């Protein structure tokens, strides 16, 4: 049959070749079926996170309407000639039948793949395109006359993502796209160079883990970090290499249109660091012919000795996400605050020692290209201070894969991206709970996407993390988790009447009280809220801007306004909710010494402080017996 032979021909060619070498003619009237993307969002208790903009392009049927007179020219052809991993390209385009719904998709690799896609999606014909664009923008975005003149230009920012790029013009809007034309290719001078280092606290206080991404596998080059103190001898530390395949993904779109080769993820452990010393480092790959590929140079300051008395500052937030600085992907209304949060932290980076991002990292939701974009966005932070992450529903949840919640919030990633793109000092990176010490702080980071209740492995971990800290050395004890195990007036939690994740604090509040956790932080609800020091639903002390004397109870803080669309508060006013802010922001903790801690909530829009409190106390104040924390004493002398 004519049609099937036409189709057989087409699948043997790449789409790019068909268009660029004119084979498209025989395809002119052929209806092409894009992959069907199942709705990837669930609307349980999960807060409004909006819709991943790339998922809007998932249309069931797309006509192929190549127009020989239309064109897109992209330049410069070679990017990153000065070694940079991000550069702006200019597109110039023309189409004789323009409309305001025309849009441009950025594809990488440029030669978008027309081979048979995974059998996961229902379709009548093999789809022509197996991959979503890495981003998109309307053709009229900066050329307001485009719909009249058919001529336009656009500037887009590209980052080095291990492959070349092409740009395709579509008419018919996102819901009924017709492919009109494809541009020339552009590429970074070396697409495989090591990029986007992210630091993490290692398993011990004097170890820093460096994780990065490259295009060099272990059969091509040896990865390592070259590092040392300024002016001192340079050391080389070996790196391990991980990657994963489409088969590691648990479902669509991560396994289908959202799939993109993640390249290689390398981690090196820089050991035996001297406390507080500044180190320089760069990422290296030694090719087997003896030549070296280097990243640019970076530096970090080693962590303080646990218990050390010195100024120590930690920034905490959840649910930040990513956004495109060039305005692409629906004008950034998916995580509207994320760039502001990122920029404010960069601005204050000289006064920040560590960052903790408690889950809902980049909301790739199965569009894997977005993880590169995120690691590029945070590079100025993560390459300089440890960037510690927690696991959220958007990293982990997928039905039938062991997540505590059976929703589809991870878009099929089921934790693999978060566990491989970032290092955390967990015993098992698939079980995302860990403890990390920074000077006078102990952080116990729980994983709400796995069960935390008594009798579980995680409960044992939480108890051990809280009970094993020496408060004379580390007076500041902090608990963190993605979902709100403590208290939140978020509208959904309010509707449930629980003001918490079901089964949250019931099983944990005794531990927080007994071990005198100073502050518990949560994300998931996209706003800011602070409680009074509270135990068993009752304020043990009135909320204030200054606490002193013996520990009374834990203060609970929701700091989920890192960037994703804001969540409203329940109209029900509780006695324990002290400060609420419907805006984007983050918290900064400053430990001045063993007896003075400053808590500040800053807005991402201006970096100024909108809520704050201090805790002043002595060591003996933590030893005092409070409800549920009294240890046995004897009358014997
Ligand atoms: C450009 O196109 C978008 C999407 O169709 C539309 O919402 C917007 O109003 C258009 N802008 C101009 C200046 O026409
Ligand atoms: C297209 O994808 C298939 C299956 O994933 C792969 O085997 C093939 O090498 C890819 N082709 C190109 C040109 O990338
Ligand atoms: C080693 O291989 C790389 C990549 O193929 C090449 O650019 C480089 O010039 C080679 N170096 C030597 C010393 O042959
Ligand atoms: C909080 O303040 C109110 C009014 O000043 C007072 O009546 C109440 O006893 C205080 N509660 C606590 C727990 O200190
Ligand atoms: C701790 O730091 C605070 C705030 O800077 C200061 O007021 C206090 O005197 C310091 N205490 C000690 C014991 O150094
Ligand atoms: C980001 O910051 C700018 C500058 O302060 C502000 O005008 C803008 O409203 C902020 N954006 C969001 C989404 O808060």
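Q: What amino acid sequence fits the structure above?
A:
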């Amino acid at each position: 049959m004519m049609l099937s032979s036409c189709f057989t021909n087409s699948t043997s060619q790449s789409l790019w070749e068909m268009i660029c070498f004119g084979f498209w003619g025989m395809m002119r009237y052929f209806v092409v079926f894009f992959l069907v993307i199942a709705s990837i969002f669930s609307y349980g208790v999960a807060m409004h996170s909006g819709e991943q903009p790339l998922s809007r392009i998932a249309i069931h049927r797309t006509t192929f309407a190549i127009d020989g007179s239309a064109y897109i020219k992209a330049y410069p052809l070679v990017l990153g000639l000065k070694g940079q991993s991000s550069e702006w390209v200019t597109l110039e385009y023309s189409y004789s039948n323009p409309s305001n719904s025309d849009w441009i998709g950025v594809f990488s690799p440029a030669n978008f793949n027309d081979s048979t896609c995974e059998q996961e999606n229902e379709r009548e014909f093999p789809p022509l395109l197996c991959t979503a664009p890495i981003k998109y923008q309307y053709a009229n975005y900066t050329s307001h006359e485009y719909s009249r003149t058919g001529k336009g230009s656009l500037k887009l920012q590209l980052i080095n993502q291990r492959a070349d790029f092409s740009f395709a013009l579509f008419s018919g809007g996102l819901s009924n796209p017709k492919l009109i034309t494809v541009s020339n290719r552009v590429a970074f001078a070396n697409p495989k160079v090591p990029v986007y280092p992210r630091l993490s606290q290692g398993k011990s206080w004097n170890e820093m883990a460096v994780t990065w991404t490259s295009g060099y596998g272990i059969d091509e080059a040896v990865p390592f970090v070259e590092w040392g103190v300024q002016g001192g001898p340079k050391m080389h530390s070996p790196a391990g290499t991980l990657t994963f395949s489409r088969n590691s993904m648990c479902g669509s779109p991560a396994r289908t249109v959202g799939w993109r080769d993640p390249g290689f993820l390398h981690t090196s452990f820089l050991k035996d660091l001297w406390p507080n010393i500044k180190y320089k480092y760069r990422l290296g790959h030694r090719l087997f012919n003896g030549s070296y590929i280097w990243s640019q140079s970076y530096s970090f300051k080693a962590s303080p000795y646990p218990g050390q008395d010195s100024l120590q500052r930690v920034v905490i937030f959840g649910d930040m996400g990513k956004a495109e600085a060039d305005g692409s992907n629906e004008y950034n209304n998916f995580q509207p605050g994320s760039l502001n949060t990122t920029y404010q932290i960069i601005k204050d980076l000289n006064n920040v020692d560590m960052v903790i991002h408690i889950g809902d990292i980049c909301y790739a939701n199965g569009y894997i290209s977005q993880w590169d974009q995120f690691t590029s966005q945070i590079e100025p932070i993560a390459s300089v201070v440890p960037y510690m992450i927690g696991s959220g529903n958007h990293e982990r949840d997928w039905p039938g894969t062991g997540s505590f919640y059976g929703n589809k919030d991870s878009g099929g990633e089921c934790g693999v991206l978060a566990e491989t793109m970032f290092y955390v000092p967990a015993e098992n990176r698939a079980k995302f709970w860990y403890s990390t010490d920074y000077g006078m702080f102990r952080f116990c980071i729980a994983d709400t996407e796995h069960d935390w209740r008594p009798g579980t492995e995680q409960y044992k971990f939480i108890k051990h993390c809280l009970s094993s800290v020496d408060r004379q050395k580390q007076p500041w004890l902090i608990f963190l988790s993605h979902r709100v195990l403590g208290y939140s007036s978020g509208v959904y939690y309010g509707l449930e009447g629980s003001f918490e994740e079901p089964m949250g604090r019931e099983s944990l509040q005794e531990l927080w009280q007994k071990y005198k956790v100073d502050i518990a932080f949560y994300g998931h609800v996209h706003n800011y809220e602070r409680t009074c020091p509270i135990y068993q639903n009752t304020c043990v002390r009135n909320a204030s801007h200054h606490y002193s004397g013996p520990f009374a109870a834990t203060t609970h803080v929701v700091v989920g306004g890192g960037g994703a669309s804001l969540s409203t508060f329940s109209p029900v006013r509780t006695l324990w909710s002290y400060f609420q802010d419907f805006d984007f922001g983050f918290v900064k903790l400053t430990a001045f010494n063993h007896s003075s801690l400053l808590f500040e909530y800053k807005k991402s829009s201006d970096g100024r402080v909108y809520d704050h409190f201090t805790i002043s106390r002595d060591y003996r104040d933590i030893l005092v017996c409070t409800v549920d924390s009294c240890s046995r004493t004897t009358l014997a002398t």
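Q: And what stands out in the fold?
A: The chain has two domains: 2-188, 307-623.
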